[in-house]
Prior knowledge:
- Keywords: Membrane, Transmembrane, Transmembrane helix.
- This is Tetratricopeptide repeat protein.
- The chain crosses the membrane at residues 183-203.
- InterPro entries: TPR-like_helical_dom_sf.
- Helix 2 (23-35) packs parallel to helix 4 and helix 7 packs antiparallel against helix 8.
- The protein folds into 3 domains: 56-171, Alpha Horseshoe (Serine Threonine Protein Phosphatase 5, Tetratricopeptide repeat); 209-251; 254-361, no CATH class.
- The longest helix has 47 residues, at 204-250.
- The protein is flat.
- 77% of the residues lie in helices and 0% in strands.
- By secondary structure, the protein is mainly α.
- It has helices spanning 2-16, 23-35, 40-49, 57-73, 82-94, 97-113, 117-133, 137-153, 157-199, 204-250, 253-260, 276-290, 292-299, 305-315, 320-323, 331-345, 355-361.
Amino acid sequence: MRNLRILLYVFVLSLAACHPEGTNVKQGLDKAAQLIEQDPDTASIILETIGMNQMNEAQLAEYNLLCTQFNEDKNIPHSSDNQIRQAVSYYEQYGNELQKSRAYYYLACVESDLNQEKDAEVHFKEAIKLAAQAEEYEQMTKICKRCSLYYQKYENFDEALEMERKAYASQLMLIDSKDNSTVILSSALGLLGVMSLLFGLLWKKHLTVHSQLDTFKEEMQMKEVESDKLVMQCNYLEEKYQFLQQHIYENSPVVSKVRQLKERTGLSSKISFFSEKDWIELLRLQESVYGLVSKLRGISPKLTEEDLRVCAFLREGVQPACFADLMKLTVETLTRRISRIKTEKLMLANSKESLEDIIKSL
């Protein structure tokens, strides 16, 4: 059945070749553009039947853009940027915001495959900006999701997370724009209903009220479904955010350095230099992933920076004997300090748990 449909498209385009020059080109491009999202294989066959020697500059730009889109949607690695750059050059001069956005988007996809990292990032952001200006939220969502994959490819997880947030925000804007249309339609129908009541018979009023109640119930049900979808999307993004944060934490060099201390013994050599920058980064990571600093300060504002550093090491399960030298203290002095943090500053003297267990439970 699908092969018959393809043959029918090719046959129609063949008949169009009998029309004045350029007509079959326009028909072929229009049909390929119409099918490229739902049936890319058929669109590709149609593009192959179009004579490139009959195309003007605008048609050639659209043709090159569609060919690049086909390769991208079919996950075919891009090996050259010649086609898409011709389209970009044309749309930069003559295209509207949406056309420019699409051109820059597919150029960025090609550059990503060709490992042109910086250029791809610039063109992804330009495509997003133009899609936002055109209020094409569906296009903007598509670009942000693809850009997130690009950042993940280069292990830039902070930027990848930001793109996921922008994609989610674009989806909300798309939903809002559709809701606005529904509100306008509902308002028009409501006004028509009022007019009908004014000029109708009195006995119809009862039926109209019931009809409005049914409509209201249906709208409420639709809103509940939309709300459930949004909750699921939020939960998904929250899980993804937590995963990315945990991934960044687990792969941090400073956390790896701290965990090496667990393997030390009293006779082992001292750990390599632990700089002030390492201390700051360790506390920042533990705050972003576990909220450790804010939780401890919420319990006791009296905690000093040195106290927080001790708690940070205990959170990773490092024993006092293994990091006393980093604190420039003896093991006995550090042990007493840990006791004072628990009893005097956190006011947990009656707790049977160790300070390490208390911190891990926060």
